[in-house]
Design a protein that fits this description.
Blueprint (H helix, E strand, L loop, with lengths): L1 H24 L9 H5 L3 H19 L7 E7 L4 E7 L3 E11 L5 E12 L1
Antiparallel strand pairs: 1-2, 2-3, 3-4
Amino acid sequence: MTTRRNWLVFLAGLALVAAVAVAGLAPAQAEKKPQTEECGMDPVTQSICVYEMILKDIRENYPLRGGGGISAIMQNSTTSFTARISREGHIDLRTYEMTFGEDGTPKIADITEETQDM
């Protein structure tokens, strides 16, 4: 009887140690900052916000699905970015003109589309 009780106590202790270890290894849930704060932090973070906006726009507004997919997003100037979408025999270019609020938050001001032969 004591052997069985000792075994159950041992297993309960082992389970407790495992639970604590797993909880300690799990990444802490980072406090989510508002996007406006994230986008105005520094130029790299701001670029990431712009790229995310461009990808969201392509996902929602670019109807053609096929070809080689998005091959690049390039920054042309401080406020201009171009997404290259490879197609069969040509490349679709979507150029995004961005504006930035005082807090650094980007906004799509204009989009122009053109096709480039390969």
